[in-house]
Amino acid sequence: MRIVLSIVSHQQQILVQNLLDSIDKYASCSAHELIIVITENTSACNYVQSKKFSVKFIQNIRRKGFGSNHNAAFEKFESDYFFVINPDIIFTENIDFDVLIHSFEVKSLDIASPKILNSLGQVEDYKRADLTVLNLIKRKLIKKKKEEFQWFAGMFLIIRSCSFKELSGFDTSYFMYVEDCDLCMRARKAGMILGDLENFSVIHNAQRSSRRRLKHFKWHVKSLFRYIFCK
């Protein structure tokens, strides 16, 4: 069995190397083959390294969106389990990928996520309600209200490869945002099972680009509009 970890970098070599160093420190895998795929989405850069696992590189000629990059990695490197991991993730506890996959199989999951914590050790809002106008209003006005779980935020997704293929991967008509919600909701409609693997947690040092950069904010709004009104 082969596990592929797909990581997309936007000239984020330091973040990616920190992630790989944490994987080297805390991760083990003996029953499965584990390959880390790094996609550099912008100009050529100094490549990062792992001391324990095989690292493959994809260098884009033109910038692609979140979904397009991960779809390309999925198509290029055959897998049985496909992990989508943001470069701002850090492993902070021992994780045996063989045990993780066993838990995934025991629960008959198609898409899963570990517990996502912030740098203070607090649980992030990685389990979210569908992106409807009402839910978005609730999210802004009642920030501490626990949401109904319908999809996983895409900072760390564990996906059964045959399920990802059945869904035709991420919908590339979105760009950089909402691809994760769309994938999970389409999976639900197809009768697939989404669930937690909460015995495994990671730290997410969120970049929040859409809150700081006008270009990212526009991409976010455009993707939200398409998902809510045009699907």
CATH architectural designation: Alpha-Beta Complex
Shape: globular
Mean pLDDT: 87
Measured as a percent range, the helix fraction is: 25-40%
What is the CATH homology-level superfamily? Spore Coat Polysaccharide Biosynthesis Protein SpsA, Chain A
Largest sheet: 8 strands, mixed
Radius of gyration: 17 Å
| Distance N to C terminus | 35 Å
What is the element string, with H for helices and E for strands? EHEEEHEEEHEEHEEHHEHH
pLDDT under 50 segments (min length 5)?
A: none
Total DSSP helices: 8
Strand line-up across the major sheet? 4-3-1-5-11-8-12-6
Number of extended strands: 12
Class inferred from helices and paired strands: alpha/beta
Integer tally of domains? 1
Keywords:
231 residues; alpha/beta; Spore Coat Polysaccharide Biosynthesis Protein SpsA, Chain A; 8-stranded mixed sheet; two-stranded parallel ribbon; 35% helix
Question: In a nutshell, what does this entry contain?
Answer:
With 231 residues, the protein is α/β, with parallel strands linked by helices. The protein contains eight helices and twelve strands.
Write the layout of secondary structure elements.
Blueprint: E1 2-9, H1 13-26, E2 27-28, E3 33-40, E4 54-59, H2 66-76, E5 81-85, E6 89-91, E7 95-96, H3 97-106, E8 111-117, E9 127-128, H4 133-141, E10 151-152, E11 156-160, H5 161-166, H6 179-189, E12 194-204, H7 209-212, H8 214-230
Parallel strand pairs: 1-3, 1-5, 2-7, 3-4, 8-12
Antiparallel strand pairs: 5-11, 6-12, 8-11, 9-10
